[in-house]
Specification:
The chain is mainly beta and about 160 residues long. The chain has helices at about 45-50, 145-150; strands at about 5-15, 20-25, 30-35, 55-60, 75-80, 95-100, 105-110, 115-120, 130-140. The chain contains two helices and nine strands, in the order E-E-E-H-E-E-E-E-E-E-H. The radius of gyration is 18 Å and the shape is globular. Strands 1, 2, 3, 4 and 9 form a five-stranded antiparallel β-sheet that branches. A hairpin with a 5-residue loop joins strand 1 and strand 2 (about 20-25).
Length: about 160
C-alpha cells in the first residue's frame, strides 16, 4: 500500500546534522506514527515518504526551508526563570520548555540570572540541513477519528 494522504505511517528514523552527528533516533524504541498529509512531521520528510511502502528504507537530506526554517537573529527573549520547565538549575545550552499562547514550546537557554533567563526561541534544529535515515515499518488506513483529530492514535501516535 503506497503512502498517500490520510494513511497512518509507522517508521523508524535517525536524523543527522551537517557534520554527520546523529541528533535524534527512534531506533531502540517504538516507531514514530503520523497521519500522512496532515502536517504532523516536517514538510521535507513528508514529501520524501509520499508514495513509498512498508519495508522501504531510504535516506533524504532536508534543507532548512523544508525542515525547521532559518534561524532568526531576533529570537532571544527574557523570561522569568520560574517559567522554565524541565530542570531545577539552568545553565546556558540547556533546553527548557515554556508555556506560550500557542502551547508548550522548547527554547534554548542562552544566559541565566537569579530571576530571569535569556532564551532563544528558535527551534534547536532551525537553520540546519538534516539527513534522515528512514525505515518504513507499516502503512495502514486511518480511522475516521484519527482523520478528524488530525493525528495517528495508538503506539507511536497520540492518546
Amino acid at each position: 500500500m503506497p503512502i498517500e494522504k490520510s494513511q497512518v505511517v509507522l517508521f523508524h528514523y535517525s536524523v543527522s546534522d551537517e557534520q554527520g552527528n546523529v541528533v535524534e533516533s527512534s531506533r531502540g524504541g517504538e516507531p514514530n506514527a503520523y497521519l500522512h498529509g496532515h502536517g504532523g512531521i516536517i514538510r521535507g520528510l513528508e514529501e520524501a515518504l509520499d508514495g513509498r511502502e512498508a519495508g522501504d528504507t531510504f535516506s533524504v537530506t532536508v534543507t532548512p526551508d523544508k525542515a525547521y526554517g532559518p534561524r532568526k537573529a531576533d529570537a532571544v527573549q527574557r523570561v522569568p526563570v520560574k517559567h522554565l520547565m524541565g530542570a531545577k538549575r539552568w545553565k546556558p545550552g540547556m533546553i527548557a520548555q515554556v508555556k506560550t499562547e500557542q502551547g508548550p514550546r522548547h527554547v534554548s537557554v542562552v544566559k541565566v540570572g537569579l530571576k530571569f533567563a535569556d532564551v532563544d526561541t528558535n527551534h534547536p534544529m532551525a537553520g540546519k540541513t538534516l539527513t534522515f535515515d528512514v525505515e518504513i515499518i507499516k502503512v495502514r488506513a486511518a480511522d475516521p477519528e484519527e482523520i478528524s483529530h488530525g493525528h495517528a492514535h495508538g503506539p507511536g501516535g497520540h492518546h
